[in-house]
């Protein structure tokens, strides 16, 4: 068993899973009258899965999806609203992996899916800080006890968090 990845693929086929996700997103788009929004931006999905960052990347690569790229304030705000409306939202503390990391070059965060530098960022005060030399993966975090209000934090990649993906 691979220790860094504990999420198992569902019993259903990958195609069936992707179809269910797509239909759910399309239903949401029609129900909320956001067809124009959904056509112009990526489709996001927040599963009820907690895994480490690398595990999330592996899992979603198999489904032809990727961890979300948050490259504008508008996308950030949209993703935050989706997280707040999802089943993974916890009022005191919610953290969700996104697709940026500085694994290759410390301090230079790039989007794994594109290799592009993360030019738009929304780091919390004092971050990224590479605490203890072990924080290389980006999360969006809301933590009432730290006053992080949907800001980014660099975190240990082996921490199990929820995630948001796009396709």
Automatic annotation (TrEMBL):
CDD domains: CLECT
InterPro entries, sorted: C-type_lectin-like, C-type_lectin-like/link_sf, C-type_lectin/snaclec_domain, CTDL_fold
Pfam families: Lectin_C (PF00059)
Residue ranges of domain C-type lectin in the record: 44-166
PANTHER family linked: MANNOSE, PHOSPHOLIPASE, LECTIN RECEPTOR RELATED (PTHR22803)
Protein name: C-type lectin domain-containing protein
Species of provenance: Aedes albopictus
